[in-house]
Amino acid sequence: MLAPGQTIGILGGGQLGRMMALAAARLGLKCHIYCPDAASPAFEVAATHTIAAYDDEAALARFADSVDVVTYEFENVPGETAAFLEARRPVRPGPKALAVSQDRLVEKRFIADLGIAVAPFAEVTGEATLESALARFKGRGVLKTRRFGYDGKGQVMLRSANDVVGALARIANAPAILEGLVDFEREVSIIVARGLDGTVEAFDLAWNTHAHHILDRTRVPAGVSPETEAEARRIGETIAAALDYVGVLAVELFLVRDGAGEHLVVNEIAPRVHNSGHWTEDACLVSQFEQHVRAVAGWPLGEPTRLADVEMENLVGADADRWAEIAAEPGARLHLYGKAESRPGRKMGHVNRLKLG
Amino acid sequence: MLAPGQTIGILGGGQLGRMMALAAARLGLKCHIYCPDAASPAFEVAATHTIAAYDDEAALARFADSVDVVTYEFENVPGETAAFLEARRPVRPGPKALAVSQDRLVEKRFIADLGIAVAPFAEVTGEATLESALARFKGRGVLKTRRFGYDGKGQVMLRSANDVVGALARIANAPAILEGLVDFEREVSIIVARGLDGTVEAFDLAWNTHAHHILDRTRVPAGVSPETEAEARRIGETIAAALDYVGVLAVELFLVRDGAGEHLVVNEIAPRVHNSGHWTEDACLVSQFEQHVRAVAGWPLGEPTRLADVEMENLVGADADRWAEIAAEPGARLHLYGKAESRPGRKMGHVNRLKLG
What value does the mean pLDDT take over residues B6-21? Predict the structure, then answer.
């Protein structure tokens, strides 16, 4: 258990690392941010930072020596980096969470093996396997690289057998999977935290809508049945336990409605705090960032009780130019990430709008 | 109006500066902390810091050049420092608030001149004036230095005419006032914010109890009549307007009950965020720290709506050793200031306990 004054090392210096560092500071814990980008938003709110590449072993060794535990804000931490650090300090969540979530094929097999429904998927090793999988998925699917994709990058939508031509070239012939399309009613996500002692706490289920493959809005409550909400929690808890997870884990799900009622199908998992959990900062007793800090520090988890209905709006690119208008909006809780440069598609901030009775 | 990415300069690097910096970071504003103490808790959560004395004009000039507005976490900013900075950058709250609040005699006259009840007071220029004032206050009163006292320092309790002997020596014969004792039922405080445009927003009235001259607990609601609550707001707004104030202002009051009902008597004011406003961090839509940041940045004020009843407990000295127990307490919101060394009487953190329906 880290004592106040001890240090959490965070790999990655973006807005997620920044919000973790702010949560840690409130609890009297220090952060050391490690990121290759000299303009990292998290540097400004952390006690210490290191600007170095993720394969710079001298810098990694100094970093490990200066911290008491290591965590990360992104799932694409190179395996060698994680292993190097793991030999020196606890890395939480552990290597299994990274190994599983860095490979879409491994991840889907892992979840399916737990008896949890996942979107239909097939391994793609070339045009032949792509064609046969697409035929199996009734001519429609999304070709995705197995590794290192996010926010719609490294993905090709296929709508007919004709689309196979050139599709693999568009993902640079990387190892891939084809995902069948799920006829979903809405996309939801569950954010769970698992402590060092195995305790799990889940936030309320959230309903997510996207624009241009980037999260646009999150609404809570998600508007599903109590049974579906309970099922989502069970899924989150099962996955976290199976990964021997420590920290905050996000599970993105499809809500499917058919004759038999509502079902949940896992889309993907993220072994970290998640954009669809930003609403917790203002609507809950404890935020996802504080929960993550508590978990990786070995502290007891907080109470994820929700105090109000809420809608989170992402401020992407020029959306953040509306900051003055949002700042003047009654009840709107504005969050800006301190990024110097606004670019199309870049997450600049978000706003939580609480619905008070 | 400061835009995101611009910088607030803060004089003082203690817990108040730290919590201001955390609030500013959430809004995408940077902070530059100026403090002579190399171990300042606020340094760790701010983009920039300067370690220099408050009379180091070269350092002050560099500081002013690097920021867009200056504010402070303590009212005892030397007048010369404020004037030096004021010539270069806006200082908010302005010099009038400092001049009034740095001198107990000036402060009490200022408030009395506004037609607001203050505790009985008399200027003390030597033993003769002290004796006559004490006689007027029926033999009981508190001798206080006019300047630079806080948390019970620079104060001598007088219970009879005999106590006059040596009393002035105990405050080093500094210019002083004698305050008559007020037979109060409870101590309360009102935290108001005044924006650059003159808008005022008040938080709910808080009830404060002290231990060893240091704030121990703050409870909200304060348990007074709606009329008293409204009167407290009116007092806060009147003082803020009269000071042409920009930022958060705390007014400490005595609640007196007599045959005619409840009355409020001003004890003292603090031109800054205040320990008795820490409950706002977890119980309100916007905290006192964010309100202060908004005001000094020229932003519109936020909504100070309270979401729950709350009790704040200060963690002073060894109280903070209970951090692990408090961290495990359901619904308790722990705040630690990152101070390396715990000393008796030193404010180490606080905890807000929300009472959810």
Answer: 98
